[in-house]
Design brief:
248 residues; alpha/beta; 9 strands; single chain; 8 helices; Alpha/beta knot; Trp Operon Repressor, Chain A
Length: 248
């Protein structure tokens, strides 16, 4: 899969994707990540990409012409790529979005700076994404998050594709707790069921803990999750246990 990033700071993308799983996937040609300097599409000796806002106000606004020229060139070069704009006004980015984007041949991510983009840039993109109700100094960190979330869903990127299948939000719920050695740490033991070797009991415990954790931490997810009859029975068990003063 090909990721193209339009940014005023292409150097920001060197280190985060040079190591670990994403770096190895790039080495294997499973991924291609290219950060393009938006100033290369600006005109004039100073390659200006921003200007003062009409109507007055603080800060600077990113000009439409450099972005339009850059997107025209990249769309010609990558005709199948989807264009994403990093914006606090965009739709909240969710795991389902990552799954859908992972099916695309490529993504072009546009990163803003300053007070934002000239409004006439918005019709040039396919979708706007936000990471949440907060503001960053630029869109680069948001682009990195989206690249990471999408890249790990590409076949072959993770050592075990099952890791992506069982992640939090992969089925609409939070993930179950994990334990490794030692068996006891700071007075807390690994749950006995995980040491039993009984795979059916382990699977049931993990699903029950998924439901418990989601109920306690993100109950709104249960409203849209696809729950089986067994899931609903386990969830009722958890609710009854909590009502009786059981461990949260």
């Amino acid at each position: 899969m090909i990721f193209d990033v339009l940014t005023l700071f292409p150097g920001m993308f060197d280190s985060p994707f040079a190591d670990s799983i994403i770096g190895k996937a790039v080495e294997k040609d499973l991924l291609q990540i290219s950060a393009h300097n938006l100033r290369n599409w600006a005109e004039g000796r100073h390659q200006v990409t921003d200007d003062t806002p009409y109507g007055g106000g603080d800060g600077m606004v990113m000009k439409p012409e450099p972005v339009a020229r850059a997107l025209a060139d990249l769309r010609r070069e990558r005709p199948g790529s989807r264009v994403l704009l990093m914006s606090p006004q965009g739709k909240p980015f969710r795991q389902q979005d990552a799954r859908e984007l992972a099916l695309e041949p490529g993504l072009i991510l546009v990163c803003g700076r300053y007070e934002g983009f000239d409004e006439r840039i918005r019709p040039l993109v396919d979708v706007e994404y936000s990471l949440g109700d907060f503001v960053l100094t630029g869109g680069e960190l948001a682009a990195m998050v989206i690249i990471d979330a999408v890249a790990r869903l590409i076949p072959g990127v993770l050592g075990s594709q099952g890791s992506a299948v069982t992640d939090s939000f992969s089925d609409g719920l939070l993930e179950h707790p994990h334990y490794t050695r030692p068996v006891e740490f700071a007075g807390e033991r690994v749950p006995e069921v995980l040491l039993s070797g009984n795979h059916a009991a382990i699977a049931r415990w993990r699903r029950r803990e998924q439901l418990r954790r989601t109920l306690l931490r993100r109950p709104e997810l249960l409203e849209t999750a696809s729950l089986s009859a067994e899931d609903r029975r386990l969830l009722e068990e958890v609710r009854n246990e909590l009502a009786d003063g059981g461990p949260a």
